[in-house]
Amino acid sequence: xxxxxxxxxxxxxxxxxxxxxxxxxxxxxxxxxxxxxxxxxxxxxxxxxxxxxxxxxxxxxxxxxxxxxxxxxxxxxxxxxxxxxxxxxxxxxxxxxxxxxxxxxxxxxxxxxxxxxxxxxxxxxxxxxxxxxxxxxxxxxxxxxxxxxxxxxxxxxxxxxxxxxxxxxxxxxxxxxxxxxxxxxxxxxxxxxxxxxxxxxxxxxxxxxxxxxxxxxxxxxxxxxxxxxxxxxxxxxxxxxxxxxxxxxxxxxxxxxxxxxxxxxxxxxxxxxxxxxxxxxxxxxxxxxxxxxxxxxxxxxxxxxxxxxxxxxxxxxxxxxxxxxxxxxxxxxxxxxxxxxxxxxxxxxxxxxxxxxxxxxxxxxxxxxxxxxxxxxxxxxxxxxxxxxxxxxxxxxxxxxxxxxxxxxxxxxxxxxxxxxxxxxxxxxxxxxxxxxxxxxxxxxxxxxxxxxxxxxxxxxxxxxxxxxxxxxxxxxxxxxxxxxxxxxxxxxxxxxxxxxxxxxxxxxxxxxxxxxxxxxxx
Length: 523
Hints:
By secondary structure, this protein is α+β, with helices and mostly antiparallel strands. It folds into 4 domains: 9-214, no CATH class; 222-279, no CATH class; 281-417, no CATH class; 440-521, Gyrase A, domain 2, CATH 3.30.1360.60. Helices cover 63% and strands 7% of the residues. It contains 23 helices and 8 strands. The protein has helices spanning 9-19, 21-40, 43-48, 55-73, 75-87, 92-116, 123-129, 143-161, 178-214, 218-230, 236-245, 262-271, 280-283, 287-308, 311-331, 335-341, 346-365, 377-384, 395-417, 429-438, 447-453, 482-487, 509-521; strands at residues 131-134, 137-140, 251-254, 257-260, 460-465, 469-474, 492-495, 500-504. A hairpin with a 2-residue loop joins strand 3 (251-254) and strand 4. The longest helix is centred in the middle third of the chain and has 37 residues, at 178-214. The chain is globular. The protein starts with 8 loop residues before the first helix and ends with a helix.
């Protein structure tokens, strides 16, 4: 595969957002383990269900709670590793290893500063600098933001130096072996500077948090709407990470420990035995806000699109819509549904974004307290129902039913009023058949066709994927045939700039990417 001489801002932001998915996916799974384990071992549930008091059951629930803490406890270092891993195009293992080395050197350098200045000897000084144990090192708690900074720096160092040639006497340290070496040196120097500049970073993040807090109930609305509007270009991960993992999502003392970030606080409350109820100001930015749109609204939109389709086409789109609804409700994966109307009727997507934001706001105003990340039926059961009536989970079906009716009514009216070409309303039914049959790729053999529609392997500069879409950089955008891509299985083609695009495939995208990668690598 060709190497691009210059990385555009679009490509970098796309790649950075994608790197967040690896730790976030683990975090979602760990949260489910923690949620089940902590709820089934709680005194209230054991009193209501005495059969749960068996020792072996309680040991199992305790084990689940402990394992569920792995992502929460080590989240920053996971970001420091996953970011260079995701940014690297070659020698990904070395990039990940260098991420850990750089993060350790970064914190050891901070520890050096704290030690020589006697800060660690005074409790008041330790508190003022926010000293915390980071992977066994007494350091300033820079949280996710510090880890992201380390990951980006290591990613850039890897891109620059993994092919470096050293003099013969030092050849052993050349190439990929040089990356962890230069990472430790550069991050070691940056770590010494951090105590001087970190207060300004922290003040900026706190400023964002204050702005969100000062917006009151409108804050969750802005967050939910913005997250949906940023999703088509793949930048929603950055906004979400800011609120979930930094001071922008709030700061709270939980079990005598100061925690920042909405999701971090929720998990800390979940793991704390002294927690009687979850903080509604925190959960307002989490799963509960998505549930009206995900569990009610989008299924209502799917039904509206089905009813608006031409009678002769309804049976052709039924399987497509049902598959998309199942992915939305069970997996919290909304793109297969959203991309059915995003490109053909952007006004519907704007309505969807606004209604999603309103869902966040309404759930916050009702003091529902359901956390985690996905907003699907699993989150509803594990973090709502199993946590007791204090979460007000019983309001979710009522609000979701209302959102179902609103989405159905608005989508049906708008589609018919403006004759929007949602699935099943196209004039060319032959083309419709081809596109819908390929919309969710369940078998292999499409990678070669998609690669050809992208201009062939010679036109590919980089290739990667997220949950539902290919992320591609090409040499010549003119060689990309969007119509053929759609007929071969793409739900949408998003051209970001002169070299970068996304091809929305669906939940089987990893199979397509792997097949394409094999074809590109073949000689």
